[in-house]
Write a structure and sequence with these properties.
Shape: globular
Distance between the termini: 33 Å
Number of helices: 8
């Protein structure tokens, strides 16, 4: 590969003392263990700067060929939230009644979910993450719109969403990941271009004072960590 045109700069990296590494790592783990999916939201206002910071953090995620194939649409308009809820509930109602297998419904039963999605209106913000399946650029000579192939867009957006959720939790906010299927209605409601695919809807806000969550457990470390020496 010809790298003669690649520009480099010194890496900015701080090597921490071992005790600080352990302290930071443990503190982050402890904080993230308190994260839960929330379905009962307060309508208390949330400073928009917290949302901006979280999206800015997500946008630092690594991506295939550094193409950054994501768009974060933040909705606070009540009328638009109502449209999204109505469309999502229509799809979810059909899914629960006809699309989901008995096995799938049984797997969800312990979480107590159904097609009702009031959190899509109750939460102060909805962050709708779109995956750019391909890029669009303008040919400098012809002025025509040209498609640009994107690499590993699914994986790239998945990493960014994980960082988004971590940032929102660290800011003291509650979230939920919602993926109604199909989700094409989001393109229509939010007027997004044809190269963008809805990836996930994330209601964000403070939990309601009486919010409850299902009693669940996470797999122990021994089941998810395989060490090869």
């Amino acid at each position: 590969m010809d790298t003669t045109k690649v520009q480099y700069k010194p890496l900015q990296f701080e090597r921490l003392p071992a005790d600080e590494q352990l302290a930071r790592s443990g503190a982050f783990l402890a904080q993230m263990r308190t994260r839960r999916t929330v379905r009962d939201f307060s309508n208390a206002p949330v400073p928009f700067t917290l949302i901006e910071n979280a999206v800015a953090t997500a946008a630092t995620a690594p991506s295939g060929a550094n193409q950054q194939p994501w768009t974060f649409v933040v909705v606070s308009n009540p009328a638009i939230k109502q449209q999204i809820r109505a469309a999502a509930e229509a799809e979810e109602r059909e899914s629960y009644a006809h699309r989901m297998s008995e096995e799938w419904l049984a797997a969800l039963a312990h979480l107590g979910t159904d097609w009702h999605k009031p959190h899509l209106e109750d939460a102060p913000y909805l962050i709708i993450v779109f995956r750019q399946a391909y890029g669009l650029t303008t040919d400098a000579e012809t002025g025509e719109t040209v498609k640009v192939k994107h690499y590993y867009s699914e994986e790239s957006v998945g990493i960014a969403v994980g960082m988004l959720l971590c940032s929102l939790h660290q800011a003291g906010l509650a979230t939920l990941t919602h993926t109604p299927s199909p989700m094409a209605f989001l393109n229509a409601i939010l007027n997004r271009p044809t190269n963008e695919r809805p990836y996930v809807v994330i209601p964000v806000g403070y939990p309601a004072d009486d919010a409850q969550v299902p009693v669940i457990t996470k797999k122990p470390l021994g089941e998810v960590l395989v060490r090869v020496e």
